[in-house]
Amino acid sequence: MEYLVIKWLHILSATLLFGTGLGSAFYKWRADRSGNTHAIYITNRNVVLADWLFTTPTVLIQPITGFWLLHLLGLSVLEPWVMLSLILFISAGLCWLFVVYLQIKMRDIAYKTIPTKKALPLHYQQLAKIWFWLGIPAFTAIIMVYALMVIKPTFASTFISTFTTTVAPMLVVTN
Questions:
Q1: Count of other CB atoms within 10 angstroms of residue 119
Q2: What is the rounded average pLDDT for all residues in the chain?
Q3: Domain containing residue 163
């Protein structure tokens, strides 16, 4: 029973993490493209709020439940798929921390621009480009973590099999 509860929490928090990230990115990107400063402000405000309400808890829950599942299954953190998952998760998290900082800055810029009835300054556009491009490695890393969670039992054996059949023979020195 304990395993099923922890696994369910792990999957649910992974779903919330992915869904909040993808949904927030879509709505922010669409609002930015609209040019409507008020809509951009409201969307940025809600994206920042969604990060605090949904993303932050899931970023904390994922490693806790992940390590707990490893313990329950008797698996080592040194398993290749676990190590790669952790590296990818941490990489996505580092991107996300910077993205949250950018979202707060963009929210504040949009808020200050509303009363002027002017277009958003170039600085906002520059931050939005950085925000967009940081999303690509973060999104890719999370997709890869999902894949590793699904194929975990075969990852190490597939890697070893591929290495021994393709790379290892090339390393053998023949006379």
A1: 11
A2: 90
A3: 2-171
Please, what is the Cα angle at 14 between 28 and 105, to 5 degrees? 30
Residue 127 sits in a domain whose CATH number is 1.20.120
CB atoms within 10 A of CB 120: 21
CB atoms within 10 A of CB 36: 13
What is the helix, strand, coil percentage profile of the chain, to 5?
90, 0, 10
The mean pLDDT of 122-131, rounded to a whole number, is 97
- Letter for the amino acid at 103? Q
- In contact, 17 and 143? CB cutoff 8 Å: no
Q: Which of 134, 112, 118, 129 is closest to 32 using CA atoms?
A: 129
Q: Which spans in 51-79 are helix H?
A: 56-73
Q: Which residue has the tokens 């090339």?
A: 170
The per-residue pLDDT for 158 is: 62
Q: Is the pTM of this model over 0.85?
A: no
Of 36, 41, 38, which Cα lies nearest the Cα of 103? 41
Contact between 43 and 31 under an 8 Å Cβ cutoff? The reply is: yes
**Structure tokens of 157?**
């054996």
For residue 28, count other CB atoms closer than 10 A to its CB: 25
Spatial contact of 78 and 19, defined as CB atoms under 8 Å apart? no
**How many structural domains compose the chain?**
1
